[in-house]
Amino acid sequence: MKSSYKMIQDRREQIIDLLKEKLTVSVKEISEALQVSEITIRRDLTALEKMGLILREHGKAQIIQKENGEIYNKELEALKCLIAQRAAAFVKEGDTLFINTSSTALSAIKKLEEKRVTIVTNNVKVASIDHHPNSTVILSGGEIRFPKEALVGDIAIESFSKMSSDISIIGCSGLSLENGITTPVLHEAKINSLIIERTKGPVVVVADYRKIGFSSNFTSGNIKDIDYLITDSFAPPEAIKSFEKAGVHVIQIEI
């Protein structure tokens, strides 16, 4: 049985507490203190090292001083980064790609490497990230809604309605079998629905475990509109099974 995210988070915070107390601790010492296997501890230490929280050397770990709240944020950031990276792998050379206002979807752009692609989005924040010279970026236009910096309204709708994409990568606030892909903002739900409608190829939804089984106010699309869901291994198993039964290909990444 897989450990829940809360269990893993608690264990990793215990490891950090041990390292704060002793500065340097061996894998064996941590294993004995927490009463879990050395294999599990090594996996935890690998994750903590990737997040820049510890240093590892010769079977020992050393703390890089951080606050516990930062551990939680770093782990979420790492999860979202891995989800974005997996989503970017679906984009092929020459594709036109629709991206919505999701931060995870936006992060996928950074993972496209040298692919020659055209990116169409209503996310104003796209202008502030680095792009490879091979990529062409098109902003939909429209009314900017703060603080999310989303382009919405008639102009944005008209722009998307005149284009089509080979693939779309979209994030959401909630994803459930009953209510589908949901967001708290009606104007964004309309754009998301249009993105799904105007995508000729796969619709890829990116959502970490916090979004799975949760519903927000407005529906952008049904579960059956999704070709691929990329989430993490902490997502509720019951929800994942229901999505797969509905025909969604689910990919769960691990950290």
From TrEMBL:
Domain HTH deoR-type: start-end pairs: 8-63
Keywords: DNA-binding, Transcription, Transcription regulation
SUPFAM superfamilies membership: NagB/RpiA/CoA transferase-like, Winged helix' DNA-binding domain
Domain of life: Bacteria
A single GO molecular function term of this UniProt record: DNA binding
Segment forming the signal sequence: none
Database matches in PROSITE patterns: HTH_DEOR_1, HTH_DEOR_2
Protein name in UniProt: HTH deoR-type domain-containing protein
